[in-house]
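Exercise 7. Given the encoded structure of a 71-residue chain, write a plausible sequence.
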């Protein structure tokens, strides 16, 4: 059981790293300083899928880490 949880954590973490790295970068510090135009836009298409999948993968990683701690 321990090896299954450890393997699943590795797979989930690789997926989480990939989804985070594929997401588009924001406007940086320009939104804080008031420059750079509109700082809010709606996520659409592939960007929305990446955002949702990163939340799901992070949740799965937390759950698997907690289960690994208990076992």
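Solution.
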């Amino acid at each position: 059981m321990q090896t299954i949880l450890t393997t699943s954590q590795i797979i989930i973490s690789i997926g989480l790293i990939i989804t985070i790295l594929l997401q588009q970068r924001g406007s940086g510090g320009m939104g804080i300083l008031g420059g750079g135009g509109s700082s809010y836009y709606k996520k659409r298409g592939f960007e929305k899928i990446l955002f949702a999948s990163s939340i799901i993968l992070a949740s799965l990683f937390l759950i698997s880490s907690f289960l690994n701690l208990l076992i």
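Remark. The radius of gyration is 17 Å. Students should compare their own answers with the one above.
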